[in-house]
Amino acid sequence: MIKSISFLLFFFVDFFYVTQSCDGNHGVVEQDWEFRNIQQSDVYDPYRYVNIPYLIPYYYPTSSSIQTSDNYEARTPSASKLGFSNPFKHLQQTPKNEVIEDAAENRFFGKLSLASSLLSNTGLFQNMFGNNAAIGGSHHGLKPFSKVSKWLPSSNNLDLSNVLSKFDTCTAASQEEGICVPGVACSFFGGRPSGSCDVKNVCCINAVASCGSTITLNNTYWQSPTTLPSSCSLTIKLDQTLLEQGQEIAQIRLDFMSFSIGQPNADGNCATDVFRVSGAENFVPEICGDNAGQHMYLDVPSTGMGMTSSSSREINLSFQLGAQSSASRMWNIKVSMLAAGSKYLAPQDCLQYYTSPTGRVRSFNWQDVGGTATRQLNNQNYNICFRTELINRQRANEMCLSVCPVKNGGDAFLLTTPTAATNPAAIAANAQAARDAAKLAAAQTALNSAQSALTTAQTTLTTAQNAVTAATPANMAELLAAVATAQSNLKLAQNNLVTAQNALLDAGIDATPEQAQAVIDARAAVTAAQTALTAAQAAANPPELVAAQSAFVTAQSSFNSAQSTFNSAQSSFNAAQSAFAASSSAAAAANAAASFSSSSGTTFTTTTTTFGRQEPPVDEKAGEVTYAICLYDYLLIDGGRDANNAVADRYCGNQMNPATGGSNSVQVCSPIKPFRITYHTDGTEGAVAAGTNILPATADTANTGFCLDFQER
């Protein structure tokens, strides 16, 4: 039964190609005739001859257009610019104007051979049948073509790379993006034709509406299925050996066309519903809530890093959906594959990337809605990057950010809830400055003492050196020469003794009295030479010189110790001086902030020296507390400044303003390129208790995140 259905399917596929493909010129004539015949209806149906359940024709208006890219340029060039030839033209071998008997039969079996090769060589039906099938479309788990190549005519060495290697991006009238391919290839991939992208191809929209699917095509839409399970995932398989992936994929861009799942809890955690990404090289935070219009760039593990297993080249997207959420869940995520070397790649470590001179950037789940619900998500730590654009034919030299206007009661900037803690912070900052001043004074005293000890040690060392010089005999050179001569004489006497002893031993029983006497004389000579050497050494090292040298060694050791103490005191003084400068600056800033209303002031700090943490004072007194300000939740704008050149890098609170205690948001500009901002939140909206190397912070309430309009100029 399956064989019969499949045979009928390829019979009609053949019939479709027979009517369109004879040769290049004839094909154009037939297509012109075809368009003339449909002028009355405004509809062009490339499948009018195909009446097969798996190839049900899709109709689309001829006004559909192809576009090169969207605002973010995460796309391939337009197919209309590249130009497509008949993808099957090289398969037709009949010369022009040549009359061949049984031509129709040859074309029939030739197209059956093409269909057989498509099934057996390219795996085109993997997206149409099996695990890749989308729910609700013309896809299902049936695999009727697994053995079809055994009973269909086959063609060896069939080159399909021209058909499948380009897959250029196209945009349908519905603004959906797809790939520009021949109509039958679109159906083979389980796609939906939506307009023509050139004379011979259709804009094929690929969509998956299922859980547990695997995709390999660029510009595929992952849509939420009608019935949602508690867990739903999609695998993006990257394999350069696939025809549809002729180049190495370096990045994946996710565009959230629609995205609505459960909101975070009051503490800012995605406790009920959550969206996760795994397999990417860059950090991708977990998100939830409403994120339509947002996007992400995922860095793909490189094939050049020794990765050979298929799992090392897979990106997994997953939704975990809790049972308690009352949210209306839905999503439509466009998956774009960006080839290595593409000019559309985002810079490294940039989760989001904007490529226009103006636009709007939002934290995940920010919405212009009123209420007191927490919308800011915890554990966000990522970079948002902006391409440097041409402004009036010149590279932009600064980027300016301002809070976006709101109409529905939302809050465009609320990262840390302002509280009355700014006044206690000023008290603690002043106390810290006083403690640091006392430490600096003590360090100065220690440094002075060390300097005095070093001076004394230097004087003692100089005195000892002079004593050594005074105790040294005037004829020291002669005495040292006498020592050297005595040492030489001793060595000669010792050699003579050895010679005499050897001669005596060699003579044995035949030894003469003279040889025995020679040994005795040689021993006496060694003793005399040793005595002479001792006397010469004593003359060269009189007792007063030995004592002076011993005193010098002691003085040198004392000097070295004093030098080390001085160096340590100097280092402590430098540290105390730096700490005092920092704490006095912080005290000045806290005092200035204390003069503003805490309910309207923007709070921030630049005193921290470690990421998100600052060491608390060790000797805190009762009632003195240093609170964290812009340490746990903040927006980092490197080099940010207002129109008056007030500068700050970290921004938090209810207003975006670099002036301490400012009561309103202002435009903040940065000249530092490449343009980039960093968004960071910690793991809680609750109060942070003081601890080792942890500053306390008051609890946040109803934080919303941020919405900013950017402009390069």
Helix-strand layout with pairing:
Blueprint: H1 2-18, H2 24-37, H3 79-82, H4 103-122, H5 161-164, E1 168-171, E2 177-182, H6 183-188, E3 192-196, E4 201-208, E5 213-215, E6 220-223, E7 231-237, E8 249-260, E9 273-278, E10 295-299, E11 314-321, E12 330-339, E13 352-354, E14 358-362, E15 381-386, E16 390-391, E17 394-395, E18 399-403, E19 413-414, H7 422-471, H8 476-507, H9 513-540, H10 543-594, E20 634-637, E21 650-651, E22 668-670, E23 675-680, E24 705-712
Parallel strand pairs: 4-6, 5-7, 13-15
Antiparallel strand pairs: 1-2, 2-4, 3-4, 6-12, 7-11, 8-10, 8-12, 9-11, 14-24, 15-23, 16-17, 18-22, 18-24, 19-24, 20-21, 20-23
Helix pairs in contact: 1-4, 7-10, 8-9
Put the structure in a nutshell.
The chain is α+β, with helices and mostly antiparallel strands and 713 residues long. The protein has ten helices and 24 strands. Strand 3 and strand 4 form a beta hairpin.
Radius of gyration: 43 Å
**Class derived from helix and strand content:** alpha+beta
Summed up, the helix count is: 10
Count of extended strands: 24
Uncertain residue ranges: 1-165, 594-623
State the major sheet: 8 strands, mixed
- Overall geometry comes to elongated
The N- and C-terminal alpha carbons lie at a distance of: 68 Å
Helix percentage: 25-40%
Q: Roughly what is the average pLDDT, rounded to an integer? A: 75
Q: Indicate the proportion of strand residues.
A: 15-25%
Keywords:
713 residues, alpha+beta, 8-stranded mixed beta sheet, 10 helices, 32% helix
Notes on the protein architecture:
The chain is elongated and about 130 Å long. It is α+β, with helices and mostly antiparallel strands and about 725 residues long. Helix 1 packs across helix 4 and helix 7 packs antiparallel against helix 10.
